[in-house]
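Kindly draft a polypeptide, keeping tokens residue-aligned:

***
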Amino acid sequence: METPKKQGSCAVCGIKPKIRQIITTVRKGSKMKKQKQKVTILYERLSRDDELQGPSNSILNQQQLLEEYAERNGLTPYINIQDDGYSGTNWNRPGWQKLIEMVEADEVHCICIKDGTRLGRDYLRAGLYREMFKSRGIRLIAINDGFDSFANDDDFTPFREIMAEFYARDTSRKVKAVTQAKGNSGKPLTSIPPYGFMKDPEDKNRWLVDASAAEVVRRIYLMAMDGIGPYQIAKTLSEEKVEKPSYYAAQIRIAGGKPTQYDMTTPYAWNIRTVCVILSRIEYCGHTVNFRTSKESYKDKKIKYNPKEDWMIFPNTHEAIIEQEIFDTVQRLRGTPRRFDSTGEPNPLTGIVFCADCGAKMYNSRRSKRCVMEDRFGKPYTVKTSDHYTCSSYSLGRNSFKNLCSQHYIRTKVIQELVLGAIRKISGHVRENEAEFVQKVREMSTVQQAEAAKSHEKQLAKNKKRIAELDMLFRKTYEDNATGKLNDKRFEQLSSEYEREQTELEAQNIQLQAELDAFNADNVKVDKFIELVRRYTEFEELTTPMLNEYIEKIVVYEPDKSSGERIQDVDIYFNFIGKYELAEEEPTAEELAAQEKRRIKLMKQREANKRHYAKKKAEQEQKEKTA
């Protein structure tokens, strides 16, 4: 009789399919383990604060300690991952990020560190990472702490991590106090001086002028004085193969240090931001600026820029590369956007021409049309037929159908002629009557400052009186609300209005007092203007540097046509001395003859224009009748 086979067994080997599947899976798993072997990570980290505690925390010491422990306890194979110079409060460390990537790829079976603080000094994040390792079956060993996650659960580990964070917080507080004291003393806080300076080898808190880089800085400022924008400056420097600041610093100033974070494959690639930063650094005038940036917390690695009123500026702490007057002029020029037309050049007068009635800047308008003239290639070219300024308020109001101001039309050529004539006239007067000029400017400045100071003091007293009244009104309103005479809604409305008005008055008082202090401390800069006059000897044409150095602003009035002729007043304010009016000289016979000739020519032109427009009108009417 044939023996029956066991139900569900294989006909060849007699093993159940389920058991055979388990054996196959185990064999496959053994193969996979041989193909993908996990490793032990020996992690070392060192920060600047750890370096101050002695050589025991050095990277080499940690590496030697961890490798000996791994060899002794059979934690092989192992690899070393290091973060040298990274704080424990920073979790974006490159070595640590690599470690986490390997953990998530299931390539790690053990992590070995010297002590718990090597992970980091944030007990919340450290605890989350410990739980992550535990959930993935990864062994964590801290040798000096006697901690092994596979051997025991150390309840004291969280307290160690809390103490490590307290240490980091206390260290940050101490460093901040030292930095604050250093900054208040006038010593520079930046570790690397701006481009154009270098540290004194004998005194790290003192800056010296780097001659080659300083020449580039001076050239950038001179180009800005010529009305050239940051984009054109950067393009010119790149084309002329001038080394950019980061490349220059890596090659010259900090050679032998750590590799720079900037791209060193493009040594001449200047960009707009670099030029703008150079044009905005007041350190080039010889001043030290501290507390320009700050951080919210010792855990926050993001730098924020403080408002300018929180900066501390210490004047004349090192040799200047740029004169203060040039720096101030460049800042004024950068405050006005300059548009480029078909000529490729902006109008240099833009930003300094103002309306006399509303005080707004005036817009420049350049119009062109196709001319019948042809170039040597037979193509028509563009000719400028209109270049003038109008009040910006008038232009904006016209677009929105509002009468904000009048036009104040004036041609650019007229302004240029007036400015060049004023510069010639005052320069000649200064050369011939320097003593008289100095005396007159000082008297004018004294009178102007005295009037302004008197007005400021009067306004300050008025504001202080009103602030005291608001304090009394607020107390009375509070008492009425407390006794039930005034409901809460009305109280909140009145109190918010009082506080708003008081805040505005206090801010105005601060500004008035600052201006009053400036009046009292300011000396007339007449010597600077005389030096400027001596610098310029040629006045054939009005150049952009001459315009920017001489002129502060130009004020244009609405023309007067009541006499039948167009008469327009223009006030010209000079740098350093303001508005300076010379006594009008009697015109010569030649000048009178020239004026009469211009007047007759103008009258003839007007008559011709009238006849032309009358003819056009008659032709138009005739066309309408025949149509």
In short: The radius of gyration is 39 Å.
